[in-house]
Amino acid sequence: MIRTRGLTKDFVVSRTETVHAVRGISLDVEPGELVAVLGPNGAGKTTTLRMLTTLIPPTAGTAEVAGHDVVAHPDRVRSAIGYVGQGGAAGASQRVRDEVMTQGEIDGLDRRTARRRADELLEVLDLADQAGRKVESLSGGQRRRLDVAMGLVHTPPLLILDEPSTGLDPHNRANLWDHILRMRTASREPMTIVLTTHYLDEADTFAERVVVVDHGQVIADDTADALKAELAGDRVALRVAPGDAGKLATLAERAPGTRSVAIDGDRVEVRTADGPGATPGLLRAADAAGLAVTRVDVTRPTLDDVFLSLTGRSLRETAVATAPDLSDDEPAGTPTAPATSTRKEVLA
Ligand SMILES: Nc1ncnc2c1ncn2[C@@H]1O[C@H](COP(=O)(O)OP(=O)(O)OP(=O)(O)O)[C@@H](O)[C@H]1O
C-alpha cells in the first residue's frame, strides 16, 4: 500500500542553511496494516506524511502510495487516501455539519451518504450539539475533532492521520479510537492506517507495527512487543540490606538473560529479556548466598524505554513539553496560517 525508497526532503531555509528533514526513508506498508510512526518533535514524521499525501514533493527518493507514484500521479494518490493533517482544514465561516458533508462529497460520496456519515461522525466525536454552528465559534479541541471528522468522512482504503488525537480529552480519544477500529473492521477491503502520535500508550495498544523515526531516519521498525523485548527488556528490582546490594549485583550479572545491572542504595535493578522467567533464579541465587531479598518488582518496558535505549533520550519529555493546548473552554478564533497545508486546500 505504501512503498518508499530513499525518501528524502531538504528544506532550503537560507543561502547558508538547509534543514535535512527526512534522510532516505525506505518503508513498506502492506494492505490492512495499522502502523504508528513515533519520534520526537522535529524527527521528520509530518514531512514524511506530507510527501506521502502529495502535499510537498520529495527532494530525492521515490514513494508509491496505493500503487501510484506521488510525483507522477498525485491525483490518483489523493483519491485513494483519507488524510487528517495538523492544520485546521475547515473554513471558519462554514457550518460544522456542512463542512463534513462537503468534504464527503468532494471525496466522492453521494449527498445522502455524506449526510449520514457526517451525522455519525459528529455524534462519535461529541460534536452533534455544534453541528449547526459556525466553525469559527468552536474551541480548539472541537476544531481538532472537526478536522478528524473531515478526514474520516469517506472510508478510503488508506487513512493517513497526523496526530489525530493530540489535544483531545481521554473520552474523545477513546471514542476516536473506537470509531477508527470499527471503520476498519466494517470496511470490505482491508483498511490500511498510518498515523503519528505522541501518545505512546495508543501506539502500544492499537498499532500492529511501530516505526520509530529520529533525525529524519527510521531507527526501529517492528511490533511494540518485539521492540520492547529486543531493545529495552524487563526490569527486575530486588531490595536487600544495603551492605548486600553489591553481592547480589554480582550474582545477577552471572544469571542467564541478564543484560545489565545497576545498584541504587539497597535496590538492585536487573535488566533482562524475560523478567518473570528470570526472577525465580535470581531469588534462588540470593537465597543460596544467604542474602535476604525483602521486595521484588518486575516491570515490563514501555515504548519510551525502547526510545531511551535507542537514543539515550526520552520521547515522553519532548511530547509533554510541546503538546498543544487545545482547551475546550475558549473559541479558537480565526486560525493563523496553519503549520502544514491543509487537506482541504491542497487535496480538494
Ligand atoms: N517548511 C519548512 N521549512 C523549513 N523547515 C521545515 C519545514 N517543515 C519542517 N521543517 C523542519 O523539518 C524538520 C522535521 O519537521 P517535521 O514537522 O517533519 O517533524 P515532526 O517529526 O512531525 O515533529 P512534530 O512531532 O513536532 O510534529 C524540523 O526540523 C522542522 O523544523
From TrEMBL:
Region (Disordered) residue spans: 321-348
Gene Ontology molecular function, alphabetical: ATP binding; ATP hydrolysis activity
Nucleotide-binding among keywords: yes
InterPro entries cross-referenced by the UniProt entry: AAA+_ATPase, ABC_transporter-like_ATP-bd, ABC_transporter-like_CS, ABC_transporter_ATP-binding, DrrA1/2-like_C, P-loop_NTPase
Keywords: Antibiotic resistance, ATP-binding, Nucleotide-binding, Transport
Keyword Phosphoprotein attached: no
Residue ranges of every copy of the ABC transporter domain listed in the record: 2-240
Superkingdom classification of source: Bacteria
Main localization category: membrane
A single GO BP: response to antibiotic
Compartments where found: Cell membrane
Record Pfam families: ABC_tran (PF00005), DrrA1-3_C (PF13732)
Bilayer disposition of the protein: Peripheral membrane protein
PANTHER family named among the record's database cross-references: ABC TRANSPORTER ATP-BINDING PROTEIN, DOXORUBICIN RESISTANCE ATP-BINDING PROTEIN DRRA
Protein's name in the database: ATP-binding cassette domain-containing protein
